[in-house]
Amino acid sequence: MKIYESAENYLETILILKKKNDTVRSIDIVNELEYTKASVSIAMKNLREKGYIVMDDNGYIQLTAKGQEIAETIYERHRLLSNWLIMLGVDEKTATEDACRIEHVISQETFEAIKKHVNRRN
Q1: Angle between helices 26-33 and 37-49 (to 10 degrees)
Q2: CATH number where 13 lies
Q3: Contact 102/81 with Cβ under 8 angstroms?
Q4: What total number of domains does the chain contain?
């Protein structure tokens, strides 16, 4: 299932924040991504309508099964690509920024080949 890069970024951010803080609200996403409250509010509405997240009456956000699947896929790509670029000698800041762009456009086939190569080297 292909969704927009921005939606993937939001889902990944929710996953990361959930791992760090156990709970996630829109304001946490605003602070993490440094986006406006209005932008995050619109994005959360769109993610809810598409069935990627649910939000309770107190504003706490949970990923649905399909939202979780996408978030974990993007997060795995981000971590592996960042580490791989660092291993190749790219400085951490640049590696992280580049991985963030690459993770959304790389095919599954190419990612699996890189993953297999990295795992063979470790």
Answers
A1: 120
A2: 1.10.10.10
A3: yes
A4: 2
